[in-house]
Amino acid sequence: MAIRLFNTNALRIAFTLVLFISPLCHTKGNTPEQNYILKCSGCHDLDGSGSVQGGIPPLPGYLGAFVNDADGRLYLMHVPGIVASGLDDQQIAQLMNFLNQKWGDAQQGAPFTEAEVKQLRAIPMTDVVKLRRQIVQRFLREGIATGDYPWP
């Protein structure tokens, strides 16, 4: 005689809930810091240092220049990590404001808003590297440091 150790219907329901609810918990409930760790630190590292060899720019000491510049803000909304992050406009705004507080210059420039992020992301971008080069050339003429990066 077989002994039933669990209710198979209850197990199916529990399994289904885990499958469908779990992904929602991993994105919507994250803090901006958690989103940085999950979505950005794989390339920029936990300390924001990036990788010259990998073509990943450092954030500390350099992010503020891009946040405080209209073209820089456009560029930031089109970097591969933001484009492919799966975050919504509000989460991206919160993430960028967190990063600016941590490694930028929060005293200058306006915080990102959900509406601004939506507007900037809607602008077509065919060559983000070209845009970065144009911004960096202007920054260098203005004496603004941009960090060690192989694609200036």
Describe this structure in words.
The protein is mainly α. The chain has a single domain, classed as Cytochrome c-like domain (Cytochrome Bc1 Complex, Chain D, domain 2, Orthogonal Bundle), CATH 1.10.760. 55% of the residues lie in helices and 0% in strands. It has nine helices and no strands. The relative contact order is 0.14.
Task: Provide a quick synopsis of the model.
Residues 1-27 form the signal peptide. The protein has helices at 8-25, 32-39, 41-44, 63-67, 70-76, 80-83, 89-103, 114-122, 128-141.
Please supply descriptive tags for the structure shown above:
152 residues; mainly alpha; Cytochrome Bc1 Complex, Chain D, domain 2; globular; Cytochrome c552
Helix content: 55-70%
Structure summary, number of beta strands? 0
Rg (CA only): 20 Å
Number of helices in the DSSP assignment: 9
SS-based class = mainly alpha
- Largest sheet descriptor: none
Kindly give the count of domains.
Answer: 1
Summed over residues and divided by their number, the pLDDT gives a mean of 85
CATH fold group: Cytochrome Bc1 Complex, Chain D, domain 2
Encode the helix/strand succession as letters: HHHHHHHHH
Approximate shape: globular
CATH H-tier superfamily: Cytochrome c-like domain
Strand content: under 5%
Give the CATH level 1 class: Mainly Alpha
Ends: how far apart?
Answer: 74 Å
**CATH architecture, please?**
Orthogonal Bundle
